[in-house]
Structure formats: C-alpha cells, structure tokens
C-alpha cells in the first residue's frame, strides 16, 4: 500500500506531460522505488488487448499445414507462417539473394545463362 501511495504522489508532482501509453511509461518508472508497479506495467504492456493476433496465426496454420506439406521441416514452416502473417513487410529480392549467398557460398555457384560460365 505504501508503494501505491508513493506512486500516486510521484505522478501528482510530475512536471512533464503525462505518458499516453504503457510503452512510454515504462522508461519513466524507477525500478528500485517501484518494483511491484514496474512489474505490473511490464506485464500489462506485453499482454495483447485482443485475441486477433492469436486467431490470425491459427488460421494461417490451417491454410499452410495441408496433407501435402506435412513433411515440411519445422523451421521452414515457421518462416512461411511468419511471412504470411506479416505480408505488409516488403522484402527486397536482391538483398535476400545476397544474404543467402554470404551464408551458403557453395550453393551459389550460379551459371550465367548468356555466357554459360560460372559466376
């Protein structure tokens, strides 16, 4: 109860504008003075407000996990599911090829179609 009273007094004497979201509030909390309130705000900031994200993920799994794709490795399945859920993020194909070629140089022995010489 004492911590709650101190918390109330702290915000009454706060000089700047009050934070509007929990994520803006977290850096302003003194973890030593208000450990319980910090933990509470941290938990509240991470709990989703609705179940839309969970339901969207489940519907994606239903579309991706068909009988023919049951042999797909788990890491590839997770990657495809994430790509489907986050469709709004644009991916640069050239950057992706460069990243793959740096990680797997032996797989990137491509042949130039016009010259028929290895790159």
Automatic annotation (TrEMBL):
InterPro entries: HATC_C_dom (IPR008906), IFN-induced_PKR_regulator (IPR052958), RNaseH-like_sf (IPR012337). Residues 33-88 form the HAT C-terminal dimerisation domain. The lineage of its organism: Eukaryota, Metazoa, Cnidaria, Hydrozoa, Hydroidolina. The gene is LOC136078628. SUPFAM superfamilies: Ribonuclease H-like. It comes from the Eukaryota. Pfam families: Dimer_Tnp_hAT (PF05699). This is 52 kDa repressor of the inhibitor of the protein kinase-like. It comes from Hydra vulgaris.
């Amino acid at each position: 109860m004492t911590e709650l009273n101190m918390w109330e007094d702290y915000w009454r004497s706060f000089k700047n504008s009050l934070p509007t979201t929990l994520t803006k509030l977290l850096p302003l909390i003194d973890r030593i003075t208000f450990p319980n309130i910090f933990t509470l705000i941290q938990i509240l900031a991470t709990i989703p407000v609705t179940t839309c994200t969970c339901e969207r993920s489940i519907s994606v799994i239903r579309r991706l996990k068909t009988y023919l794709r049951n042999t797909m490795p788990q890491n590839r399945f997770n990657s495809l599911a994430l790509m489907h859920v986050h469709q709004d993020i644009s991916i640069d194909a050239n950057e992706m090829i460069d990243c793959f070629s740096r990680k797997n140089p032996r797989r990137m022995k491509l042949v130039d179609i016009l010259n028929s010489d290895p790159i």
